[in-house]
Specification:
alpha+beta, 2 domains, 3-stranded antiparallel β-sheet, 32% helix
Length: 148
């Protein structure tokens, strides 16, 4: 297997783990539970090590969603996701010596992971429509803002 193939395998494992992770997020989750589940998802894909300090999954949400942490200093928080939130998960798998790096923003609507709705679609819909983007368009209050 070439180095490129090895990297593709690491990325593929991370992509599959992220898809499973995104579908499993609930309102009761925290950074800690999402990060733990991410590690379980990576293991299910055959990934048991990380290249990024000792931080295979760095998850930020809610009040920390705009923060920046090094994996060296990261400690997951216990703030619940809630009904409408945005979480960012950054996976750093090391598979057979090849490093992967896969990050995604995970929208939570109605307490469940959701597929993000493009802002253009929201602008064409009624202001009452609640979606992840409407929740974040006005700083989390759930009302479509004229600032969008």
């Amino acid at each position: 297997m070439t180095p490129l193939d090895e990297t593709k395998a690491a990325q593929s494992a991370a992509r599959a783990a992220m898809a499973e992770l995104a579908a499993s997020v609930t309102s009761a989750d925290t950074e800690r539970t999402i990060a733990q589940r991410a590690v379980e998802c990576l293991r299910a894909e055959g990934v048991y090590t990380t290249w990024y300090y000792d931080c295979p999954a760095l998850v930020l949400l809610g009040s920390r969603s705009s923060a920046s942490f090094s994996g060296r200093d990261y400690v997951p928080a216990d703030e619940p996701v809630g009904e409408c939130n945005l979480a960012t998960a950054d996976l750093s798998p090391l598979l057979d010596g090849a490093a992967g790096d896969y990050a995604r923003s995970l929208c939570v609507e109605g307490g469940r992971g959701a597929t993000p709705t493009p802002v253009s679609a929201i602008l064409l819909s009624s202001p009452e429509r609640r979606s992840c983007a409407t929740c974040w368009a006005d700083g989390g209050r759930g009302v479509l803002s004229s600032r969008v």
